[in-house]
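QA checklist item 7 of 12: single-chain prediction sanity check.
[x] sequence parsed
[x] length recorded as 234
[x] structure emitted
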Amino acid sequence: MEIVIANLVEILRRKLVVSCQAPADSPLHDPHIIAAIAQAAVDRGAVAVRIDSPPHIQAVRRQVSVPIIGLWKRQFPDSEVYITPQFRQAQAVALAGADMIAIDATLRPRPGGISLPELIARIHTDLKKPVMADIDTVESAIAAATAGADFIGTTLYGYTSATQDQDPPGFEILQELTQTLKHPVICEGGIATPAMARKALDLGAHCVVVGTAITGVDAQTRAFCAALGNPSFH
């Protein structure tokens, strides 16, 4: 796995990763369509893609050869954690063809009571996959690094109760993490323009993940309609 991690570090260095996802009620939420979006992103220069759910990962894996950062969003009544919350989701993501597993690495309780160090250790030992820790605070980032995560992502900054008064992208937390941690720090969340992506690299990000600004047809259309005073149908 060390060789895999070293390869991923070099592949991702100062490059673009595109998150290819769609809301469950969107016509784009289809494995073949997600795979086509991923192929388009790769054809235009993305060096990796971030994909949600085993069926979508399987479809994308058949379409592209670049690294897939895989995750599985699952809701549980006893926890706010939903990005690959348990080992069973991580295992399914790995079997579907993901090269790296993204997990929620916030300090919130996980469903089923598994701890973050236990989850990361099982992914490393049983699945032989590197882990991207999606964090929201500096404290959760340090905890994830200590627990053995291979990459740290700012993905959940602004999306948890601990950071709900903050708006992504988290340039401040990004800069602090790149100066504090030896781990590669991935900037994800709220990157809306190429200039913002460049700023993230200038602040020390190892690479940048962009989703809605590139692939978010539903969210972007809704935002434009709202700005024009037009009703939203969904």
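[x] summary fact logged: The chain is about 45% helix and 15% strand.
[ ] second reviewer sign-off
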